[in-house]
Amino acid sequence: MNIIIFGPPGAGKGTQSSFLVNKIKMFQLSTGDLLRAELKSGSELAKQLKEIMDAGKLVSDDIINELIEKKISDPQVKNNIIFDGFPRNLEQANALDGMLKKYDQKISAIINLKVDYSILVKRISGRISCSICKKPFNEFFDPPIEAKNCENNNCESRELIKRSDDNESTVSNRLKTYDEQTLPILDHYRSKGIVKDVDAMQSINDVTSQIEAIISDL
Ligand code: AMP
Predict the structure, then answer these.
(1) pTM of this structure
(2) CATH (domain of 72)
(3) CA-based, 20 to 30 A from 166: which of 31, 54, 61, 119?
């Protein structure tokens, strides 16, 4: 089973994916995480990527589709992927259809996290994560108990990291990009009958329960 976790920036895609990774051992394929890993290389490509990401725009489809094909063709994760942050426009959705066909796989559900945009700026600007285990927190809604030690995963001397694109000015551009390019692809999947809407305004645990119920019915 492959699924797509879908929704605007700040809807909780990463948070909910990590629950699924831990609970049902799926593989999380986050294009944002793969791009942020590339940023650390300091390469020429990394500089160009950072500029695009900090502007809240989309990175080119060729780069993204290549990253995705590398993973989708990997037998170790075959049919067990949560796509997080992909596809983000119609071209990527069409490319994904082609790759799924090529590697004999399918998408069982699009989990559509529905949230009011009014809360997203606060959710995103408060977002921080553990430098070691990557566990996400929110300075406003879900602060860490201790700054230096991670309560769940025994990470010691960690730092709490904030993404450079998690600031108010970039967020409004990211939401605009989402509305114009990403949201329209839901129709592509609605016509296949696989979109499952989730009320993502509820608490993290309640959202997880809704997703678990959907997955157990697949
Ligand atoms: P995310 O971590 O999913 O919020 O992504 C952070 C940034 O990475 C986005 O604002 C885009 O600039 C870039 N990005 C992530 N996924 C994609 C994608 N599928 N296509 C194009 N750009 C992406």
Answers:
(1) 0.92
(2) 3.40.50.300
(3) 61
